[in-house]
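Checklist before submission:
- one chain only
- standard amino acids only
- sequence pasted in full

Submission:
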Amino acid sequence: MTALKQVIDAYEARGFKIQQILADRQFEHARKHIEMMGITLNITSRDEHVQEIERFIRTVKERVWAIVNTLPFKQYPNRLIVETVYNTIFWLNCFPHKNGIHPTLSPGTIITGSTIDYNKHCVLQFGSYVQVHEPHNNSLMPRTTRAIALRPSGDSQGGYYFMSLSSGKIIIRNKWTKLPMPAKVIATVHQLAAACKKYKGIVFTDKDGNIINNENDEHNTSEITVVDAVSESVTVQKSKSLILR
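Returned file contents:
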């Protein structure tokens, strides 16, 4: 309910009044709280799904697979998988949709007011290897940190999110040096993935951890990809869909 409230607040902060939420039966338990906010909750029937959300989730999965096929890694740590999805969503929201409500404004601009500057936010490709510059003094401590570029932070200064190869954590920096990716960096990413006991490549699973193969995915539109914020993994779960209007 907290996450849903954050989405509603984001819309209302920009002057939008949400009148109806379309969702499947897994949102039924939140009906009382949603209707107390003056919003109608329209629940789908059994084996029925919100098709707009289903199709968008498939687009996200296709983009994730496309990104993965451009990278040299064979295994991915949890955090890098999650950031691949975040990066996909970020860029999908940066461009106007051909069937959207505005011909030139992107969803990100409409809902958050943020805009993208090519010279600041399109500098690094996802998965690039960099040395980020760290604050330093006259000591002998390292002045740079090995990292993998993830996505723009969206700020006006042109900062980026990176995954530190020293700690495996996400950091934000606005100064870096891009370098060719050596085999040692690829090995480090594989070591981080091994510590997470990850599958080879990107694997979509259901909520019980069962692997969903591509053949089933072609014919089953009731499965969607979500990011599990608790375990930091990507899974395919029965549709927890909503459309805000």
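Reviewer check: Residues 112 and 188 are 36 Å apart (CA to CA).
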